[in-house]
Design brief:
Length: 220
């Protein structure tokens, strides 16, 4: 199966690595030069520098013969463009898009995106579930994908208080999905400022829990 992935962040990186190990033909597209260089050192020819939102780049990547196109950039608009172009211009059979804002799910579905994946929605479903048996199924789905979720509270002595997320050196193997502040959910972005007693919910790889707790000064 030939799979094109748009977006070389942590999700794109781990997807590419896993799919290659499973024997698939995979091409990862990353537009940032510095990030591309870091990825190419490990993934070699499986990563190409280019913007997956551009038709020329997708054509050069062989989108006409792709079985699946997966868009996992940090911008929902870009993920929508990538998937729509794959469908309408290159007749790709299946498209999968990461949703950073779960409110966009219906729009993506109406515009023909086959599958949407929302880390925030997945974690919210776990938080809102009141019966332990209802938590079991979504949690197992995450674990089968090699992910788990971590909940932590920002202590008073945390060095991250008053800093925005862009100022905090978060580990690569984690994906911050939700902040709950005064019982109100906040979908985080780079400008979100951390406050004392914030409840942080993140998707992490198996080795990522200690790293993210250390980053927020929430060990123990």
């Amino acid at each position: 199966m030939y799979i094109i992935i748009g977006g070389g962040g942590d999700i794109g990186y781990y997807l590419t690595k896993t799919l290659l190990n499973q024997g698939h033909e995979v091409l990862l597209l990353e537009k940032d030069a510095t990030r591309y260089q870091a990825l190419s050192e490990e993934l070699g020819e499986a990563v190409v520098r280019g913007d997956a939102c551009e038709a020329r780049v997708m054509e050069d990547a062989g989108a006409k013969r792709a079985d699946v196109v997966i868009a996992v950039t940090g911008e929902d608009d870009d993920n929508l463009v990538i998937c729509q172009m794959a469908k309408r211009r290159f007749n790709v059979n299946r498209t999968i898009a990461r949703l950073n804002n779960p409110k966009h799910e219906k729009i993506f579905q109406k515009l023909g995106i086959d599958i949407t994946v929302s880390p925030t929605k997945a974690i919210l479903s776990l938080i809102e579930a009141e019966i332990p048996t209802t938590r079991f199924v979504p949690l197992m789905k995450l674990r089968r994908a090699g992910l788990d979720f971590v909940e932590l509270r920002i202590p008073a002595e945390s060095p991250t208080i008053g800093k925005t997320l862009r100022e905090i050196n978060l580990p690569r193997n984690s994906n911050l999905a939700l902040i709950v502040r005064n019982n109100q959910p906040i979908i985080p972005n780079a400008d979100t400022m951390i406050q004392e007693d914030d409840e942080i919910f993140a998707l992490v790889s198996p080795e990522g829990e200690d790293a993210i707790r250390k980053a927020f000064g929430a060990l123990g």
